[in-house]
Amino acid sequence: MYQTSELEINMGPQHPATHGVLRLVLKLDGETIVEVRPVIGYLHRGVEKLSENRGYRSVTPLTDRLDYCAAFAENHSYVGAVEKLIGVEVPPRARTMRVVLAELQRITSHLIWLATHGLDIGAMTIFLYAFREREKCLDLFEGYCGARLTYNALRIGGLAQEFPDGWAVELKRFLAELPTRIEQYETLLTGNRIWRQRTEGVGVIDAQTALGLGLTGPTLRGSGVDYDVRKYAPYENYGEFDFDIPIGSKGDTYDRYLIRMEEMRQSRRIILQALERMPDGPILAKVAGRIRPPSGAEAYFMTESPRGEMSVYLVSDGSDKPYRVRFRSPCFNNLQGLPALSKGHMVADVVALIGSIDIVLGCVDR
Amino acid sequence: MYPVLQYFVVPFIHGVVLTLVLLLCVAYLTFMERKVIAFMQVRIGPNRVGPRGLLQPIADVVKLLIKEDLTPDAADRRVFYIAPVVATLATIAAFAVIPYGGPEATLRIFGFTIRPYIADVNVGILYVISISSIGVFGIVLGGWASNSKYPMLGGLRSAAQMISYEVPFGLAIIGVLMITGTASLVEIVQWQQQHTWLFWLQPFALVLFFIAGVAENNRAPFDLPEAESELVAGFHTEYSGFKFAFFFLAEYIAMIVVSALVVTLFFGGWLPVTFGLGHLFPRIPALLSGAWGGPWVMLLAGMGWVFIKIFLMLYLYLWIRATFPRYRYDQLMNIGWKFMIPASLAWIVLTGAGILAFQAIRS
Questions:
Q1: Do B77 and B69 touch, CB atoms closer than 8 A?
Q2: The domain A41-341: what is its CATH number?
Q3: Digit-coded pLDDT (tens) for A99-134
Q4: B157 close to B236: Cβ distance less than 8 angstroms
Q5: What is the pLDDT of residues A259-296, one digit of tens each?
Q6: Residue B232 pLDDT grade (very low, low, confident, very high; cuts 50, 70, 90)
Q7: Chain A residues with CB inside 8 Å of B40's CB?
Q8: Do the beta carbons of residue B49 and residue B80 sit within 8 Å?
Q9: Following CA atoms A40, A41, A42, A43 in sequence, which dihedral angle do they give, to the nearest 10 degrees?
Q10: Residues of B in contact with A120 (CB under 8 A)
Q11: Which of A105, A145, B50, B195 could form a disulfide with A153 if both were Cys (CB 3.0 to 4.6 A apart)?
């Protein structure tokens, strides 16, 4: 009689919900997904190759454009790697300032995640509420380094600028109202039956598979794996601060959502502690004008970007340009998990899952 | 006068005027939607075109009229043209029985009788529900005629959703029919005038009816078939210009139809806002309904009350749209078939038991 065949559909690079130029080739059996094949490369700009032709300092602006929603984290990984390569000790004040900025970046990035994830699932209003908060964060960043999105705020050996006068006061004011705002978002979403039905049980992945696929960040922690670079291999002075890492239990989209909401609260905690304990002193260590690391030197530096473990592997050949810069991007590895996550789900869930693993194509494609 | 004039020409003109007023209302409904949702989202909404943006709908209509009217090559031309018309006509036709004033507000102009409804069919509710079902044809035909994968899938999903929710839509108001003993919309409101507003007696039916209505209209949170962030952009992907405007109109007019039905069946139609407690203070409803001023005043008062009530129901529609995320398609169908139908059947049984108990206590 009639035979049903599988439908192969393209969720093209231009799509309102794929967070950038991601192309997904979906094989559907009716409405159920049989296979998801991500096709990437539409935003590949050859950053790793470009870095080989630039001096170490000139690579930093390139890293901004990798994960443009969390540019500071990308800057941080790269600059940390160079500092490790040439053996520079960052002054304590600069380290604490970096922690403040990194956690502020985490809050900013999670706000954009919340906005777009909510919008994709249909909660339009949360998009505007989260962006209202994000505007305040971007104003803070602009007050610090002059840019809203691509900061280039770090320098090899520390930071270029002090916090401007009154900046810390503004930051504290923002943090004072952040908990009520997060509660507002939770009121709209966490207990909402529709939200729960769309996110609970969607995209469940167990810890073993997640580790095998190389997932990191909230995507991994949702499955119950207690891995956060800030606790596992503390960098800057994260070891001195008192904060919790939210861990999920079921590994579904709802858990990942709750984790990121809680991470915003924990980031606020870290920033307040850091502002309190801010030591005095210089903010930039003395580094040679032309950075020429010894030939054959290698360095690998990991940070916890809002999306996962972002690390940079640097190899030097003795010249003033790096021989090889390898950016291990969290989004690339997390995107690998998408086919496993969406097995057996429906088309509408794919959109929720892309939002849940929180990818930025600049980071995926480099 | 000549029966042709009284029974054909006058209702025809009445219908034309009603349709024109309705189209204006729908245009401003789109404006209200944009403004209300904007304010809920900490934005302002359109405020450039005309004073405070009030001419925005006019600009939208003009834009849609002057847009290029593109018909896809492979589309079935005749069906492509007809589909939007079918969808819109069906929803406008539902307004023939919706009363916006009481039978006391009948006007006599030049010897012709003009009542505040085009027709008082004694199967009024049935008529409205049946005509709305014809609107589904428009969607299916639209999706089919586009001759393209995605609109067809979207159209089928929309249509399946609409016909699934017509069952609870109809079942929910059986309680109302049982209590009032009539299916004529005018008589139901008159019952509410004599007794009390039906939402006191049928609260659960009201909730079911409203939710089924929202799902019928493909409105949030049941708007997956036409959501922008989904794979299929819905049955109206290939439509542009005025044909698209027709589909758009059909959706919004259907919203007004459902709101008008809710108001007529549960909230007293043209009756002044006394919430059915008017018998306690008989002077107030008499004052508010314009009974002192004769038919013209009564008509204006009735229209005013209907307008305010429908406005509030539409505000509820928009409020829900701004707040809730979207249901996934299978969850949507689940709710319709596995929850709402058994719930409405249970409510019918309960209403029947209630009526029997009431009659037993009375006698």
A1: no
A2: 1.10.645.10
A3: 999 999 999 999 999 999 988 888 888 999 999 999
A4: no
A5: 999 999 999 999 999 999 888 888 888 888 888 888 88
A6: low
A7: 125
A8: no
A9: 120
A10: 229
A11: A145
Contact between A48 and A344 under an 8 Å Cβ cutoff? The reply is no
Range in A225-234, B17-26, B231-240 the model is least confident about: B231-240
Q: Are the C-beta atoms of residues B170 and B212 closer than 8 Å to each other?
A: no
Average of per-residue pLDDT across A321-325: 91
Kindly determine whether residue A128 and residue B42, on different chains, have CB atoms separated by under 8 Å.
yes
pLDDT over threshold 60, residue B1: no
Residue A208 has pLDDT above 80, yes or no: yes
Which residues in chain B are closer than 8 Å to A125, comparing Cβ atoms?
40-41, 322-323
Contact A97, A163 (CB under 8 A): yes
State the best of B211, B326, B331 to mutate against chain A, taking most chain A CBs within 10 Å: B326
Q: Which is more confident, A322 or B2?
A: A322
Contact A122 B231 (CB under 8 A): no
Task: Specify burial of residue A53 (Cβ count, 10 A radius: 0-12, 13-18, 19+).
Answer: exposed
Nearest to B223 by CA among B339, B88, B337, B326: B326
3-class secondary-structure state, position A324 = strand
Q: Which residues of A touch B (CB under 8 A)?
A: 9, 11, 16-17, 26, 31, 118-125, 127-129, 132, 188-189, 192, 194-195, 197-198, 346-349, 351
Q: How far apart are CA B267 and CA B309, in angstroms?
A: 8
For B303, residues 6+ apart whose C-beta sits below 8 A from its C-beta are B100, B101, B116, B270
Do residues A261 and A186 touch, judged by C-beta distance below 8 A? yes
pLDDT of residue B269: 80
